Amino acid sequence: MILADDHVMVAEALGRLIDEVADLIGQAADGQQLVEQARLLKPDIIVSDITMPVMSGLDALRQLKSEHSSARFIFLTVHTEASVAAEAMRAGACGYLLKAAAGEELLEAIRAVMAGRIYLTPHIAGDVLRTISRSADRQEHHLTARQREILRLVAQGKRMKEIAADLKISVRTVEDHKSQLLHVLGVKSTADLIRFALKQGLISD
Q1: Residue 95's beta-bridge partner residues?
Q2: 64 or 156, which is more confident?
Q3: With a threshold of 0.70, does the pTM exceed it?
């Protein structure tokens, strides 16, 4: 895991906290350093502030996504605006929480993201999901009833074999539907499918 924060004392405190649940392999004081360390160290998870010198955390996320980095981003920030959080989630963040609520909630967010889930702080979750939903409503995604059903089951964390058994179809058919979903929605991963399902209200947060 890499931690990115330009406040030294904050970074030191967060580093000690993160050590409780994950191996901290690198730290960065600005977005450019974060990108360079991520390229070199290839972390599974990045915990980052948004407002940093040289390059923001959001721009660092976008840069790494454009390079097909598999690192999962958790933003830990002072920004309480739903629009900022929604922008972060649309850009591909897997977690978003506030510095005012750091501590045990950060550990909870890290555990959730390590398990392949999305974490959005309850403090602003309602506003963020409404903001994302309004944006999603403006997009025309025409899914069949079966595709929506499989999307919902995938987003619930079910495996291909479990979905096949539930729907009484073959695993290959489920995999084909999932591939079609990825293509139709223009996304690349199961996490992206979960994010879209949240936007559409197919699952709750």
Answers
A1: 74, 119
A2: 64
A3: no
